[in-house]
Automatic annotation (TrEMBL):
Keywords: Receptor, Signal. InterPro entries: BUG, Bug_dom1. SUPFAM superfamilies: Periplasmic binding protein-like II. Gene3D superfamilies: Bordetella uptake gene, domain 1 (3.40.190.150), Periplasmic binding protein-like II (3.40.190.10). Transmembrane segments: none annotated. Residues 1-22 form the signal peptide. This is Tripartite-type tricarboxylate transporter, receptor component TctC. It holds the Pfam family TctC. CDD domains: PBP2_Bug27. The lineage of its organism: Bacteria, Pseudomonadati, Pseudomonadota, Betaproteobacteria, Burkholderiales. The keyword Signal applies. Belongs to the UPF0065 (bug) family. It comes from the Bacteria.
Length: 321
């Protein structure tokens, strides 16, 4: 009887503490660690969110850029940070891809992080040089099969999402394009315009101006569903390669062990911010589709994403030292 009473008291005390933690959080400035350099789309998006989250949370929200090593520097930093909700990572798809690509990764993308929410997908597109006689994905696949070994595709670097998206396409379509890696979209697009590349998977934010000028031809978006940003553009899956899906993403995670109360408070305020018209317009200008889901949904998605891209890495033989 005494044990039952003590257990009841302990449970009640735990609940009270949980409420207290929720009310106390945040008790100091919150830092969003961004794994990319200042000035890029992820940085601009993070600063947009930080400004508004700071007002809602009642504490300053600071952006700390820690680029390098395929986003692993920032990821490892947050994995080792105090699990109190005051340090979060604006994670990218590479969080889960890195363990399959690199020989040494000092974090586990599932065990070392607590998911908060998928924030947005980065709108990626499949485009071709105008000399390629394909107006849709089915025609591109037919052309590639009829011209084996003649197509080069560019990426923004070995092991990046644009590289793996093309390798997934190769595998699913039963074709073989030659990979030419570049250090960013700009040099790749220059070679595309010059006719040295026939195919490219790239972010709409960087490729859009070339498509609009007629220098490249847009065939499809890579996501499972059409993009809100490009509602008239079909998906790869619906225009010739059923089942294809590639969604580069950005989302908030915290160090594993962060109190649920802190996760829930940050998540709730983030959901409010993502509904603001000015925020939605900013995301559109950056080539991003807002998502905003629950911690559990994000966690389930992350696990599936890790398995999917690990298989693509294995099939393609892609490795980064």
């Amino acid at each position: 009887m005494i044990k039952q009473i003590l257990a009841t008291v302990a449970l009640a005390a735990s609940a009270v503490c949980g409420v207290a933690h929720a009310q106390d959080y945040p008790s100091k400035p919150v830092t969003i660690v961004v794994p990319f350099s200042p000035g890029g789309a992820t940085d601009i998006m993070s600063r947009t969110l930080a400004e508004r989250l700071g007002k809602r949370l009642g504490q300053p929200v600071i952006v700390d850029n820690k680029p390098g090593a395929g986003t692993m520097i920032a990821s490892e930093y947050v994995a080792r940070a105090a699990p109190d909700g005051h340090t979060v990572l604006m994670a990218a798809s590479s969080l889960g891809i890195a363990p399959a690509l690199y020989r040494k990764v000092n974090y586990d993308p599932v065990k070392d992080f607590a998911p908060i929410s998928l924030v947005a997908s980065v709108v990626h597109v499949l485009e071709v040089h105008p000399s390629v006689p394909a107006k849709n994905v089915a025609e591109l696949i037919a052309w590639l099969k009829a011209n084996p070994g003649k197509a080069n595709y560019g990426s923004v670097g070995a092991g990046t999402s644009t590289h793996l998206e093309a390798e997934l396409f190769n595998t699913m379509a039963g074709v073989k394009m030659t990979h030419i890696p570049y250090k960013g979209s700009a040099p790749a697009l220059m070679d595309m315009v010059a006719g040295n590349l026939q195919v490219m998977f790239d972010a709409w934010a960087s490729s859009g101006p070339f498509v609009k000028d007629g220098k490249t031809r847009l065939l499809a978006v890579t996501t499972a569903r059409r993009s809100k940003l490009l509602p008239d553009v079909p998906t790869v899956a619906e225009s010739g390669l059923p089942g294809y899906e590639a969604m580069p993403w950005l989302g908030f995670v915290a160090p594993a062990g962060t109190p649920k109360a802190a996760i829930d408070k940050f998540h709730a305020e983030l959901m409010h911010v993502l509904q603001e018209p000015a925020v939605q317009e900013k995301f559109r200008s950056l080539g991003l589709d807002i998502i905003g889901n629950s911690p559990r949904e994000f966690g389930d998605f992350l696990k599936q994403d890790i398995v999917k891209w690990a298989q693509v890495v294995k099939d393609s033989g892609a490795k980064v030292d």
